[in-house]
Automatic annotation (TrEMBL):
Pfam family, one: HTH_3
InterPro entries linked to this entry: Cro/C1-type_HTH, Lambda_DNA-bd_dom_sf
Ranges of residues in domain HTH cro/C1-type: 41-84
Protein known as: Helix-turn-helix domain-containing protein
CDD domains registered for this protein in UniProt: HTH_XRE
Coiled-coil segments on the chain, per record: none
Length: 99
């Protein structure tokens, strides 16, 4: 039986979405960052044993906003995000810029 060689992730994305710098790839990258943020918030909430409603109440927002954020909300105000993480989840927000 012949084994298939695995394609590196970057090559796979280049083929399926397009090369870096193309409009389609830029949209993909932006959407992926929003998806990662939602997953991180959901994981942090679950690790702390909190419901979406509890996080919303603690952070001064509503359950539907937390739900949308966890499911890929693209536009979130920095101040709201910071409040959700610090007050709602009891965490600390760290930001970095990478090139």
């Amino acid at each position: 039986m012949k084994k298939k060689s695995l394609t590196p992730l970057n090559e796979f994305i280049d083929k399926k979405v397009g090369k870096k710098g193309t409009r389609k790839r830029d949209k993909f990258e932006t959407d992926y960052e929003a998806f990662k943020l939602g997953v991180l918030i959901q994981q942090a909430r679950q690790e702390r044993g909190l419901t979406q409603e509890q996080v919303a109440e603690l952070s001064g927002t509503n359950k539907s906003y937390i739900s949308k954020l966890e499911k890929d909300l693209k536009d979130v105000r920095f101040s709201t995000l910071q409040r959700i993480i610090t007050e709602g989840l009891g965490g600390h927000l760290e930001i970095s810029i990478k090139f």
